[in-house]
Amino acid sequence: MTATDVASNTDIPYDSPLRRFPKRGLPPNLSSTYPHGHISGHVRPTSLQRDFEKRKAAILRTMNAEQIETAYQQVVGKITAVVEEDRKRNDEVEREKEKLEKQREMERRVFWKMRGNAEGRRESRGKEGDEGSRGEGEI
Q1: Residue 35 and residue 37: Cα distance in Å, rounded?
Q2: pLDDT (tens digit, 9 = 90+) per residue, 93-139?
Q3: Pick from 17, 24, 43, 21: which is nearest to 32 by CA?
Q4: In this structure, what is the dihedral angle of CA atoms 27, 37, 70, 79, given to the nearest 10 degrees?
Q5: What does the alpha-carbon distance between residue 68 and residue 25 come to, in Å, rounded to a whole number?
Q6: Distances from the Cα of 38 to the Cαs of 31, 47, 99, 110, 124, in angstroms?
Q7: Which residues have a Cβ under 8 Å from the Cβ of 32 and sit 6 or more positions away?
Q8: Beta-carbon contacts of residue 62 (< 8 Å; ≥ 6 apart)
Q9: What pTM was computed for the model?
Q10: Distance in angstroms (rounded) separating the CA atoms of residues 30 and 23
Q11: Buried residues in 47-64 as b, exposed as e (16+ CB within 10 A)
Q12: Between 15 and 133, whose confidence is greater?
């Protein structure tokens, strides 16, 4: 494998000036280096490009620009709905996580407080027991 093969198999950085072709619906920093290239920056393989062109030609034969835009907006709407659902679910999970973290912190405080009280009682018993035994021995 030559150096050019390795270079051609590596991704092109997102901030590269070679990325001049924006992809529809994606931020500008996800532009491609070729009009129909992958976001990775590489050209589509010939077989994939051929399939893409066949699908595109079939769509253009059966639909006009307005219908294509409507279909596109429907797909975008579905994706947006899924993203919104995921965002709501993530918010719920985050709230539950915060609730559990607060509960854990409270349990930790109670544990250490009880442990401190138990040690304090042991120490006080030990002192009382030592004093009591000394007191009985001295009499």
Answers
A1: 6
A2: 999 999 999 999 999 999 998 888 877 777 777 665 555 444 444 44
A3: 21
A4: -60
A5: 15
A6: 9, 14, 43, 56, 74
A7: 19, 21, 22, 23, 38, 39, 41
A8: none
A9: 0.45
A10: 7
A11: eeeeeeeeeeeeeeeeee
A12: 15
